[in-house]
Amino acid sequence: MSEQDNEKGATMKLTEALEAQTKRVQGPPCAILVALTELDADDATALTAALASEMQSTMISRALASVGYPVASNTVGRHRRGDCSCGR
C-alpha cells in the first residue's frame, strides 16, 4: 500500500490533514472579535467572561443582539471552539 492511497481510500497522510487544519482560511472578521474590539472595556470584559463561562451560546447571542450586535448562537459556539476566522 502506498502513501498515496491507504486502506480507507484517502490520498493524504493524517499528518498532512492535521497540518491543513491549523491553517486558517482568511475571510470576514469573526463577529465576536468585532464586538470585542468595538465594545467599551467593561462590556468587552463581561463578554470575555461569558464566553469562558458555561453560559449558553444562545444567551450570549441574545445579549449581543440586544446591544446592536446580531450574532448567531452558532457563531458564538464556533468562536468558543476556536473554529472561527480569528482563530482565538
Describe this structure in words.
The protein is mostly helical and 88 residues long. It has a domain at 28-81. Helices cover 53% and strands 0% of the residues. It is built from five helices and no strands. The protein has helices at residues 14-21, 31-38, 41-52, 57-66, 73-81. Helix 2 (31-38) packs antiparallel against helix 3 and helix 4 (57-66) crosses helix 5. It is elongated and about 50 Å long. The model has no long low-confidence stretch (mean pLDDT 85).
Keywords:
88 residues, mainly alpha, 5 helices, elongated
Unreliably modeled segments: none
Tally of DSSP helical segments: 5
Radius of gyration: 18 Å
Order of helix and strand elements from N to C terminus: HHHHH
Number of strands: 0
Mean pLDDT: 85
Given helix and strand content, the structural type is mainly alpha
Helix content: 40-55%
Query: What characterizes the major β-sheet?
Result: none
N- to C-terminal distance: 39 Å
- Choose one word for the global shape: elongated
Q: DSSP strand (E) fraction?
A: under 5%
Summarize, please.
The protein is mainly α. It has helices spanning 14-21, 31-38, 41-52, 57-66, 73-81.
List the topology elements.
Elements (H helix, E strand, L loop, with lengths): L13 H8 L9 H8 L2 H12 L4 H10 L6 H9 L7
Helix pairs in contact: 2-3, 4-5
